[in-house]
């Protein structure tokens, strides 16, 4: 890949001590998805306005978010799509090899194991676990469900460095502790409970019930803002 001929500036250059605000960090995967779609369509350059529209954000917000990666856009020329895609991928750690174990092979765990989007984004699901003897030994895609008793052995064998917990709250902390003890320091949890982990372990919690409640709040606010809504609610 040829690096574009616009230099990075010291004020915008990324570095180990430069923290990206959580809101900006959360939008980077969205920009990456839009950029990769453009690459698939052989688009070489894109303006901030075009990229912002593809990502569903304001162009000023996009420019501020990308400034945390460095200064590499040129007014009137725009961004080099491949270069910015690579920069975001590198910052998100997607140029490394991520080997994922899914703990919990119920409906959600099995659906996650079959999700082809992981592979295209740099994540390889290498192991799937459950405690149900009726599920252990069955095939999910190319994976065979292993018993959770073999967790540590299989994590070591597969070189797992990231895990997904899709288990009931009552067993989530115990399994999380086992993952951490086995050396896994990046965990995505769908369990409806707050997990306690050491400071060096990163846990991201996905609570679909909470997200639906927030969505319901915004939907209700939108309904209340409609003309005549108060009159209807008073009837």
From TrEMBL:
It comes from the Bacteria. Residues 1-21 are annotated as: Disordered. SUPFAM superfamilies: NAD(P)-binding Rossmann-fold domains, Winged helix' DNA-binding domain. InterPro entries: CoA-bd, NAD(P)-bd_dom_sf, Rex_actinobacterial-type, Rex_DNA-bd_C_dom, Tscrpt_rep_Rex, WH-like_DNA-bd_sf, WH_DNA-bd_sf. Residues 93-194 form the CoA-binding domain. It is found in: Cytoplasm. GO terms for cellular component: cytoplasm. GO terms for molecular function: DNA binding; DNA-binding transcription factor activity. Pfam families: CoA_binding, Put_DNA-bind_N. Modulates transcription in response to changes in cellular NADH/NAD(+) redox state. This is Redox-sensing transcriptional repressor Rex. It comes from Arthrobacter mobilis. The gene is rex.
